[in-house]
Input
Amino acid sequence: MAGYEWKCITENAAFAGRDGAGAVVLNDKMWLLGGWNPNDKVNFPQICNSEVWCSSDGETWTEVVEQAPWEGRHTAGYVVHDGKMWIVGGDCNQGHYQTDVWSSADGEHWEQATSSVPWGPRVLHYSAALGGKIWVMGGQTTPQFAQEEEVFYNDVWCTENGSQWNRVLEHAPWSVRGMIGHSAVHKDRIWVLGGGTYETPTINSRQFMNDVWSTNDGVNWELHTESAPWTPRQYHDVAVWDDKLWVMEGCYNADAIRSMDEAKGSWNRNDVWFSEDGVNWEEVPDTPWAPRHAASPFVYEDALWMVAGNNMFPDVWKLFRK
Output
């Protein structure tokens, strides 16, 4: 089995610390989109911003757009599809749900595909690109942030153009969930790796999962394991690199009070796991970066990158084969 090693590229990138920022690779560059940091009133006057940053080496970052035409957001759907980067939906930190879809071929010029998706108000959904389509799965409403009926989803939707959506499955066999950062497409299949649900006014607790599922069509799902060896988690990040699935960081503490200070503490994780088949997992030992959740992962130049996260450090790390 190949050995891996982390390298710190920079501990102080040009962008401000943030969590939930989009991370896509397009035109031989890494692109960082938006993000959330309620304690930074200068760079995040509306809690979230719509900045667009890019880098070709992970050390030098250029701000392409200070304020994109899409409303500031985090933990949205972020994919590359049809030669463009896409932002699918958003959050409800502005007191309303963001039901729009945007795309850009260069990070500077953005086009709105729709202002109102048919899958309705939801946040923390899981998104991926496969087979010439964008896919949206799961998610939920959070009435404590924006008035809406309390709903938890495990449905599956897809689109070819961002504006016309089809629901291919109303109830997937996996339990309702979201809170999975970015996406994993491996062996021509979309993989759902763990995840969870956010507390609501009537359900004052979170759910954390560590089961593994995959599909090649959004309709037929295969359960690979009911309980992976990594701790159940949410707000983790997933990726595919070196022909393997990766699960990184996230949080787990069913009894934690979700204050900003506590979120920086013991319920964050910094473990990193990989698998070729979703069943057999191995941990990369001795992760050197600080625990976090809702980071921004990139697969770029034959390496796996870990950027920022909710500890609000603007750091950049690179995992490579020894």
